[in-house]
Design a protein that fits this description.
alpha/beta, Rossmann fold, six-stranded parallel sheet, 13 strands, isomerase, NAD(P)-bd_dom_sf, oxidoreductase, EC 1.1.1.271, NADP+ binding
Length: 327
């Protein structure tokens, strides 16, 4: 476990600090004055182990928590390992949120996902769309676990007066992403495949699905800035159940594009000159997923990266960390 500030500093535990979002939050917090960032690797602290998490919070004197740790993956991984996705995420959420409360931690931020919303939710998806329809079947176990995390935060706030909040990011990408060809999300998977196709001078590249689904993408550094911004917002009281809850806030750009358009942009970024084909026999997932980010915009936050600049940044990181990214 690591610490990086004098004893009088505010102690902030970033759970999942080696993941894409966690590492971005650590980078953002690293320059903050009077801040002691506390981290623990999986071998040092198994967040699915209740006793281990209880001991950690009982001994580390944590002031704030960013709960970024999760088992994550793309359509293939969610479809192949549904039990792992729902079990691991439920366990680590319940352990961290409850033991934070038990140890007297008043401020916590839980990282959710846009997949919490119904498959056919009205677009753009507002916070109020939660639990109003059927989830996308390919990642339902993961989505249910994330919904449980939101409701844990809400419930501890209502019953115990804590200030636990949730941010629901759209599809994230950027430095530290998982570039595995089978178990990664769409942008890192395509960046790697287009890079390799370009290097091999391949004439064509084939992408799962029809290319028509619409998706929104957010650079991870923008997500980190949004997360820290949300943690600084004033506390909302929970006496009135109709009060808008800070524990559930969308984070997105408000702009989407088709998978085909994304592929063309990535082709340009990586220098791929061949033909892009689509395999319509493979699943598309939800037809459209665009976040309504009006609530967070009213709270004073906006993203800094557009998609082109963000993809260029992510590809530059991949090229500079290619062995790490491929592993």
């Amino acid at each position: 476990m690591t610490h990086n500030a004098p004893p009088a500093a505010k102690r902030i535990f970033v759970a999942g600090h080696r993941g894409m979002v966690g590492s971005a939050i650590v980078r953002q917090l690293a320059g903050a004055p009077d801040t002691d960032i506390v981290t623990a690797t999986r071998s040092e602290l198994d967040l699915t182990n209740q006793q281990a998490v209880a001991h950690f919070f009982a001994t580390e004197n944590i002031d704030e928590v960013y709960l970024c740790a999760a088992r994550v993956g793309g359509i293939h991984a969610n479809d192949t390992y549904p039990a792992d996705f729902i079990y691991d995420n439920l366990m680590l959420e319940a352990n961290v949120i409850h033991q934070a409360y038990t140890a007297g931690v008043q401020k916590l931020l839980f990282l959710g996902s846009s997949c919490i919303y119904p498959r056919l939710a009205e677009q753009p998806m507002s916070e109020e769309a939660l639990l109003t329809g059927t989830l996308e079947p390919t990642n339902e176990p993961y989505a249910l676990a994330k919904i449980a995390g939101i409701k844990l935060c809400e419930s501890y706030n209502r019953q115990h007066g804590t200030d636990y909040r949730s941010v629901m990011p759209t599809n994230l990408y950027g430095p530290g992403d998982n570039f595995h060809p089978e178990n990664s999300h769409v942008i890192p998977a395509l960046l790697r495949r287009f890079h390799e196709a370009t290097a091999a001078n391949a004439p064509t590249i084939t992408i799962w699905g029809t290319g028509t689904p619409l998706r929104e993408f957010l650079h991870v550094d923008d997500m980190a800035r949004a997360s820290i911004h949300v943690m600084t917002l004033p506390k909302v009281e929970y006496d009135d159940v109709t009060e808008p809850r800070l524990s559930h806030i969308n984070v997105g750009t408000g702009v989407d594009c088709s998978i085909a358009e994304l592929a063309s942009t990535i082709a340009a970024v990586t220098g791929f000159k061949g033909t892009i084909e689509f395999d319509a026999s493979k699943p598309d997932g939800a037809p459209r997923k665009l976040m309504d980010n009006a609530k967070l915009k009213r709270m004073g936050w906006a993203p800094e990266y557009d998609l082109q600049a963000g993809l260029e940044n992510a590809y530059a990181w991949y090229l500079n960390n290619i062995e790490q990214a491929r592993s």
